[in-house]
Design a protein that fits this description.
Layout (H helix, E strand, L loop, with lengths): L2 H11 L9 H11 L5 E4 L5 E5 L6 E7 L4 E7 L5 E6 L10 E7 L2 E8 L8 H5 L8 E3 L5 H7 L5 E4 L4 E2 L4 E4 L2 H18 L6 E7 L7 H10 L3 E9 L8 H4 L9 E4 L5 H13 L5 E4 L7 H6 L6 E9 L7 E4 H17 L9
Helix pairs in contact: 1-5, 5-10, 8-10
Length: about 350
């Protein structure tokens, strides 16, 4: 990964985007893709749509959702503590003892989520998983009035953001789900822009995936693509306690995952797997027996139907502050998507 591409990824991972509050990260996306896209717009929903050769008759959509799970401020009590509600699907235990950022109109405010010390917990409390209503955020305020001067009801909250390199080209950060998808689809578009595609390629940083695949639905309706690839993370199974028998044999660093199943057009799957082999691009195969819990679900059912594929980045510890991915997997995924878009011409038929 070159310095410019890595810098783009780091900017994505340092910018907050809980569902419904994606505007700051979409500015990062627009800044990066503006130099190589033929058309760039943000729709009323907040999706950023960048295109190469947009006037072509046939259209391909590459979707990576930019939003992450988060919280929002629901109440500020008279002691200055914040009480929050959830945005997206959380394991509440992941929140306890975490550094948090409240994203306000004047900038981020640091806070922590904790509970009383273990010495003070009753035996019954030690066995109980708390609910979000039992947890508060401490920003250090001395009173409710002081807290309300800095924080507004509805302000979004995320884990403390950041990028942490690890051994063997791995990296950890909150929000890898799904900043990596945004990076892949925009990097693929950059590679396509250097060639002469026969189709229009539309890379979309979609919004509100974590609360119902909403941005993919609205952007696909506007673009009217014939074929689309959703890029998201998937569960890596190369760590303790995760069952390969249930979830497949998926390793971080062994390439992106190309999925098969009823949510995937078989011609798209065959094309992706053949292109990966032909171009010596590392990849893995996994099956999904139900509608995907990502943008591919909404894309496949757009208007009269879309030939849909899923390319996924192996991710350890999803929906946590320490999501782990491989930078090599990102590069292989972007190259695979670029080769796929460049392989389509007037004779390509995606009818199953």
């Amino acid at each position: 990964m070159d310095a410019q591409s890595l810098d783009f990824l780091k900017k994505l991972l340092h910018t907050p985007a809980p569902s419904g509050y994606e505007a700051p990260i979409q500015e990062v996306v627009r800044e990066y893709v503006g130099s190589f896209s033929d058309e760039l717009k943000t729709d009323l929903h907040g999706n950023v749509i960048a295109a190469v050769n947009p006037s072509a008759k046939r259209r391909v959509m590459l979707a990576g959702h930019c939003d992450q799970i988060g919280l929002l401020v629901q109440y500020i009590d008279d002691e200055g503590y914040l009480w929050a509600n959830l945005i997206g699907g959380w394991d509440i235990q992941m929140l306890i003892g975490q550094n948090m950022q409240v994203h306000t109109a004047s900038g981020p405010v640091h806070g922590v989520i904790a509970r009383k010390a273990i010495h003070l917990l009753t035996p019954e409390e030690r066995k109980t998983v708390p609910e979000i209503k039992d947890l508060w955020i401490d920003i250090g305020a001395k009173s409710g009035d002081e807290a309300r001067e800095k924080i507004a009801i509805g302000d979004p909250i995320t884990f403390e953001l950041g990028f942490r390199p690890m051994l063997n080209q791995l990296a950890s950060a909150p929000g890898m789900d799904n900043r990596v998808g945004v990076w892949v689809v925009m990097e693929a578009l950059r590679q396509v822009s250097e060639k002469s595609p026969h189709v229009g390629v539309f890379s979309v940083s979609t919004v509100q995936e974590e609360i119902g695949l909403r941005g993919a639905r609205t952007s696909a309706f506007s673009i009217e693509p014939e074929v689309g690839i959703a890029v998201d993370v998937t569960h890596a199974t190369d760590c303790p306690t995760v069952s390969k028998k249930e979830h497949g044999d998926i390793k971080v660093g062994s390439g992106p995952v190309v999925y098969r199943g009823p949510n995937v057009n078989p011609v798209v799957f065959s094309s992706l797997s053949q292109l990966a082999s032909k171009n010596e691009i590392s990849y893995q195969i996994n099956g999904i027996s139900r509608p995907a819990g990502n943008d591919a679900n909404a894309m496949q059912l757009n208007q009269g139907g879309m030939a849909t594929g899923i390319v996924a980045i192996p991710n350890r510890y999803m929906h946590s502050p320490v999501e782990v991915i491989s930078l090599d997997d990102l590069e292989h995924a972007a190259r695979l998507l670029a080769e796929f878009c460049l392989s389509i011409d007037e004779s390509t038929d995606f009818t199953p």
